[in-house]
């Protein structure tokens, strides 16, 4: 035995490396997820299986880039990508990968198969072929500064429509949907929840109350926390994490009932995973009550994250049962019913042209828009003024038709310029100029 160990050392191999297992994960998750989950998984693995595990974490820059990376690997070798786990990115990505037979089926062991139900609020938590499982869930809502609203005598928001109330004039900060996928999703949610005309009317009035459009989706979060804004439309985990760190007495978050979506964030074993057994153990761990508590408990709580509150929704029902009264937020998706479902095909088709439309008539003309809105509010919010102010320049059908031509840059730029000039003219008239 002594000679074997000596030989291993000479070859540059340690006994830990020989005895240990390996896992390769590709994920667009932010670093806080990696920093909390990976060390805990290693501890769990050592305690449970009496050996170390080395976790290699790959991220090519985001979900789209990670998918391209995996596809390129499978093109070189259809049997395996050389990666074990794909984790995070929304259900659309995993539906696409499963459809192309790039994910491996896996059935959860007991009692996980009962702790992870088939759905939450009508949203599936795994696909019929069991090639992916939700590991967390996200939604979209309104993040607000409680103290600032109270000081200004403004009622805390409960619906998207509340943000269009003139009391919020100059109190909102939003991200530019041409630069922020989150902002685009939230605009799309409002459009599909209310329909084209009513949705566009609401988005335009909210733009009138908006103080500034930012480039980054994180900037509105910072504005609410610092008091530069009273409220903003955000993805839930940013808001919940800030509330966990700074206190419910200072900040709040609400999900408009029946007017937002619940989007699972899956984990899956890739076809031909080189470390299949370890991959199965990782999936089991990520979905376990122990790991799921990292998502919903505040920083420093027993069983919670050590470095930063993650602010996600868990998918394990036992994790919720065991954390009653201890979670960063009382929200429990398994007790909710009113979530809408997006028409993803329509949203994808109209995304680019819709963002350019919003950019032209809400953002690039924002100064004129705010002056027009101020004048309308001052005149007593007359119905005819609001109707003129918020009427979209095209119907939804016309916008969808434009999307077929939007690859022509000459046509696109001409149409954008027309929207800008027409909007400026309309806003100036409404402002009395």
What can you see in these coordinates?
With 433 residues, this protein is an alpha/beta fold. It is 48% helix and 14% strand. Helix 3 (31-49) links the parallel strand 1 and strand 2. It is globular and about 75 Å long.
Helical percentage: 40-55%
* Number of H/I helices: 19
Structural class of the helix and strand makeup?
Answer: alpha/beta
Question: Residue ranges: pLDDT <50 for 5 or more in a row?
Answer: 1-18
Q: Provide the residue-averaged pLDDT.
A: 91
Highest-level CATH class of the largest domain = Alpha Beta
Q: Please name the CATH topology of the largest domain.
A: D-Maltodextrin-Binding Protein, domain 2
Count of domains: 2
* Alpha-carbon distance between the two ends: 92 Å
How many beta strands in the DSSP annotation? 12
Write the layout of secondary structure elements.
Layout lengths: L1 H9 L4 H5 L1 E6 L4 H19 L3 E6 L4 H14 L8 E3 L3 H9 L3 E2 L7 H4 L3 E2 L2 E2 L8 E13 H7 L19 E4 L5 H14 L1 H14 E5 L4 H8 L4 E5 H11 L4 E4 L7 E9 L5 H12 L1 H8 L20 H5 L22 H20 L2 H13 L4 H8 L5 H8 L5 H22 L3
Parallel strand pairs: 1-2, 1-3, 8-9
Antiparallel strand pairs: 3-12, 4-12, 5-6, 7-10, 7-11, 7-12
Helix pairs in contact: 3-12, 8-9, 9-16, 9-17, 15-18, 15-19, 16-19
